[in-house]
Design brief:
Oligomer: heterodimer
Largest sheet of chain A: 8 strands, mixed
Largest interface: A-B, 25 and 26 residues
Strand order of the largest sheet of chain B: 1-2-3-4-7-8-9-11
Mean pLDDT of chain A: 95
Strand content of chain B: 5-15%
Strand content of chain A: 15-25%
Number of strands of chain A: 8
Order of helices and strands of chain A: EEEHEHEHEHHHEHEHH
Helix content of chain A: 25-40%
Order of helices and strands of chain B: EHHEHEHEHHEEEHEHEHHHEHEHHH
Radius of gyration of chain A: 17 Å
Structural class of chain A: alpha/beta
Radius of gyration of chain B: 22 Å
Structural class of chain B: alpha/beta
Mean pLDDT of chain B: 93
Low-confidence stretches of chain A: none
Helix content of chain B: 40-55%
Strand order of the largest sheet of chain A: 1-2-4-3-5-6-7-8
Chain lengths: 258, 431
């Protein structure tokens, strides 16, 4: 994968590009794209992958004018257009799924294939989603991973919370990334998507980790019911971070979209 | 110098094993620890103490706003201030303050502060905090990265609502109002003096300097640790070419305990100080600082939330640690005077917010400590910064002639006075 920059009408956007095949757009979740993430590489063996970073993620420039759901939706539509893509396979994980679903609902004639992976955007009172914004790094793994021990290693390796310089760097990244994610997800990750899902015309695949403790699988069933003709695939031995835990299974599931 | 007697209003009945059994004093504190019937006495005692301080020569009495918080049972400081306005005279009412990003629409704050200023005869000092992350984000659900923008708009709207004599339309990002025309208007023109509590945000320094607002650091870690932060502020005052370096541009909150001797101070107050630092400040670290609440610029200056616990925790701090480290200033009147002078000169602050009711301190001890401070410490510190003694920009300007509450005529005279021909007697009774 190659990290590149594309200019929309309003802001430069960093994106990963690689592979060949049908064009596929992948929108990342609130955690961004970790360097250890093999999912994109595996995806690139089958597709021509475009994975834009939300402004503020990684080394990308922040864009304060992104405030609400419509801003993020239109921005990401701008990115797809700037990349010169027409009707790519549109996929997203968690927060990225929320944005992808909004795009497919707003621009419902522009997307014919949609993949929602452990997607945020809905809220069920009987199944409240844990508050990721009030968790310390070492508290997150049980919510994010099926294999908590592996997840803990992944999230906390290199953490040096008692080193002020390290902490400063960590807090800046966290403020940029999770601060941006908070505009869509804080304090309750619902910006009215449920009312708009009926518009989606795309062939939709909903993928969920069977052990997702952050956004439990019942949300996958809810997406499936709300989107006409959607198919739900539940992947065993995967938590919320399916992309990290079962990348091969995930790529193979996405094959449903072509 | 301006001394304000400040009460955080801690809940005094947190159990001994609070730290072990509960994860946080704030946000998700166990509601079963609150006892409404006991609070009846707690509230009234705390208000009595504020009123008492008002009789001892303190320049101000102060209240603030916290939500879902075991050390501050004052979600609405305006309610307390209204009570105090009626039962005190001359003393300034420092409401430090209303978290203006939380009010919808924020003209509510312009109205309530105007009411307080009118009821008190111009004794209000208005505080506009951004609000802690616990209050603003975790309790009141504001999106962290948008909180400052919303705060800024609320500020601009409130100031305009106070100053603009004619109805106006407000087309803000967060507030759309077609007819802004608050009624009542404040006594103090064009508006009451404004203090901004901050925690080291560079943006807040600049905001205060540019608007001639007083910057207050409401820290619990005391004047020695507060030094770097306040120096950051004064450096900024110099860098932005402020016209003067009046110490009244700054305020500082300090826990203070006075007794006859240093030993007596420890004997009388250490358990209450320990209650405060060990139970009241037991805040779950996950609530200390929502990502996006602090700006990148502020994080890069190294200012961390004071609610992020020290690495070894407060639990290990002894009375000696707390006094030596300046978390608290405690001891005989002479010890306290010396330390206070160090604080006032070292931080260059003209407004002192004296935290004198500490933790679960009973009223008698709070009164004793307060009395000693008022009689034996405060008079010896008043002379500091004489060159700025006339700087009234950061303090209230009360009306000269203030009415006395409860001055209705006697009930038995009402009928006679009511029938009297209109004139002097009638207008006097109307007053």
């Amino acid at each position: 994968m190659e990290l590149k920059t594309i200019q929309t009408a309003r802001v430069p956007v960093r994106y990963f590009e690689g592979g060949s095949g049908k064009p596929l757009v992948f929108l990342h979740g609130a955690g961004g794209i970790l360097p250890s993430d093999q999912f994109l590489d595996k995806l690139a063996k089958k597709y021509h992958v475009y994975a834009p970073l939300v402004p503020g993620y990684g080394d990308s420039q922040e864009y304060p004018a992104l405030r609400d759901m419509l801003d993020f939706t239109l921005h990401t539509l701008d990115v797809v257009e700037a990349l010169g893509l027409k009707d790519p396979i549109l996929t997203g994980h968690s927060m990225g799924g929320m944005i992808a679903a909004e795009m497919a609902a707003v621009a419902h004639n522009d997307f014919t294939r949609l993949g929602l992976i452990g997607s945020a955007g809905l809220w069920l009172d009987d199944h409240p989603i844990a508050d990721l914004f009030a968790m310390l790094p070492y508290e997150m793994p049980p919510y994010l991973f099926h294999d908590v021990e592996m997840g803990t290693k992944l999230l906390t390796s290199g953490l040096a919370l008692d080193d002020p310089e390290w902490l400063k760097v960590f807090l800046v990244i966290n403020a940029r990334q999770m601060g941006t994610a908070g505009k869509l997800l804080f304090p309750v990750p619902d910006r009215g998507l449920a009312d708009r899902l009926y518009r989606i015309k795309a062939k939709t695949l909903v993928v969920w980790g069977a052990s997702d403790k952050l956004i439990p699988p019942v949300y996958g069933e809810t997406f499936k019911k709300a989107i006409k003709g959607a198919q739900l695939t539940v992947i065993p031995k995967a938590g919320h971070m399916i992309t990290l835990e079962q990348p091969d299974e995930l790529v193979s599931a996405l094959g449903y979209l072509g | 110098m301006k001394f304000t007697w400040f009460n955080l209003m801690p809940w005094p009945y947190l159990p001994d094993d609070f730290r072990e059994k509960h994860r946080s004093v704030w946000v998700d504190i166990d509601s079963r620890l609150f006892d409404a019937e006991k609070s009846h006495e707690v509230y009234n005692t705390y208000m009595d103490l504020l009123e008492y301080a008002g009789t001892l020569g303190f320049d101000g009495i102060g209240v603030n706003e916290h939500h879902q918080n075991g050390y501050g049972i004052m979600p609405s400081p305006n309610i307390i201030a209204a009570g105090l306005a009626r039962r005190t005279k001359d003393v300034a009412l420092i409401v430090l303050g209303n978290s203006i990003a939380l009010y919808n629409p924020p003209v509510r704050v312009a109205e309530e502060f105007a009411m307080l200023d009118c009821i008190s005869g111009g004794r209000l000092v208005a505080g506009f905090p951004v609000g802690t992350s616990m209050d603003t984000n975790y309790c009141y659900g504001q999106i962290p990265a948008l909180t400052r923008e919303k705060y800024q708009e609320a500020h601009d709207l409130i100031i305009k609502a106070w100053r603009e004599p004619d109805p106006f339309a407000w087309n803000g990002r967060y507030n759309k109002l077609r007819h802004v025309n608050i009624w009542p208007r404040p006594v103090q023109k064009p508006n009451p003096p404004i203090h901004i509590p901050g925690g080291g945000s560079v943006e807040t320094y600049d905001f205060c300097i540019d608007n001639t607002y007083s910057y207050s650091y409401l820290s619990f870690s005391g004047y020695i640790r507060g030094k770097a932060l306040m120096q950051g502020y004064w450096d900024r005052v110099a860098a932005r070419n402020a016209p003067d370096t009046s110490p009244y541009r700054a305020g500082f909150a300090q826990t203070i305990c006075v007794a006859d001797t240093d030993a007596e101070a420890e004997r009388l107050y250490s358990e209450h100080v320990s209650y405060f630092y060990n139970r009241c400040l037991h805040v779950y670290a996950g609530f200390a600082d929502a990502p996006g609440y602090r700006t990148i610029k502020t994080i890069q200056t190294g200012a961390l939330s004071q609610y992020a616990p020290p690495i070894d925790g407060y639990a290990n701090l002894t009375w000696k640690d707390l006094t030596d480290g300046g978390h608290i200033i405690a001891g005989s009147p002479e010890t306290v005077r010396q330390r206070m002078e160090e604080l006032i000169k070292g931080l260059r602050v003209g407004n002192i917010f004296c935290l004198m009711h500490v933790g679960n301190m009973p009223k008698e001890k709070a009164m004793y400590s307060t009395q000693l401070f008022a009689e034996k410490v405060m008079p010896k510190l008043r002379h500091l910064y004489p060159e700025f003694a006339d700087d009234g920009r950061f303090w209230c300007k009360p009306m000269k002639a203030q009415v006395k509450p409860g001055s209705l005529p006697r009930a038995e005279d009402a009928a006679r006075l009511a029938r009297a021909p209109s004139g002097a007697q009638t207008s006097k009774s109307m007053a």
